[in-house]
Amino acid sequence: MTDPQFKTWQSIQDEVLRRIHAREWPPGADIPNEADLAREFGCARATVNRALRALAEAGMIERRRKAGTRVALHPVSRATVDIPVIRQEVAALGKTYDYRRLSHAQAVPPTNVAQRLCPDAPCTALHVTALHLASGVPFVFEDRWINLDTAPAAATQDFVTTNANEWLLAHVPYTHGEIRLSAEAASEDEARVLRTDPGAPLFVMERLTWDHGRPVTLARLCYAPGHKIVTHLGTAP
Q1: Cα–Cα distance for residue pair 43/8, rounded to 1 Å
Q2: CATH fold of 86-223
Q3: Could you tell me how far CA 32 lies from the centroid of its own chain?
Q4: Overall pTM surpassing 0.85 (yes/no)
């Protein structure tokens, strides 16, 4: 096969997916090696390698040194979630971003926070609350705790002009995290900040990030009523 359509790694990825979905290569089946696929597609072996790496990262195939490549027994597309930058979320809506820090203090985390932010021993923490606005309208109420044992440089930041979300992404590495999504009724404090009624339905995201074995920050983000979240899924057979 030397069709010019198979010259990019994306086109090869699409063809491999087609064969998996059509059960030409059923779950568990071995896939031809890179050299054979390169000859079939009439392209460089590196191009095939790039396509197969992407499919392995997506969970569609399994690659093992010396054992070759095969279709995953339960091939699915894995969803990945990036930490959003609220400024960019607002800009994507065609609105003007603004930010107001509401409170800032070192404090002892309450029990429910300490259990997640410092599970092994008491920690020093910075508590920051803030309001993110879209064209002057409340968009997100942020309630954040930062583990200063993991991110000591945060203690020198007042977060008046730079929000903690963007500062942490730029200055503190993280290796993995946990995200919890829920629909909750607005508390009196949340309703006051978001200019809505107590009990109004809010979309709430709680995000805990880690740097290897050390928790970095726990953030609770309450979006104003009416917020919609849009994501994209890959296809599964």
Answers
A1: 8
A2: Chorismate lyase (3.40.1410)
A3: 33
A4: no
Question: Which amino acid, residue 107?
Answer: A
Q: How far apart are CA 116 and CA 129, in angstroms?
A: 18
Is the domain covering 9-71 a CATH 1.25.40.10 domain? no
pLDDT confidence bin for 229, thresholds 50/70/90:
confident
Q: Is 28 left (phi over 0), alpha (psi -120 to 50) or beta?
A: left
What residues contact 229, with CB distance under 8 A and at least 6 apart? 203
What residues contact residue 230 under an 8 Å CB cut-off, 6+ apart? none
Place of tokens 């926070």: 113
- The ranges assigned to domains in the chain are 9-71, 86-223
Stretch 6-30: mean pLDDT, rounded?
A: 86
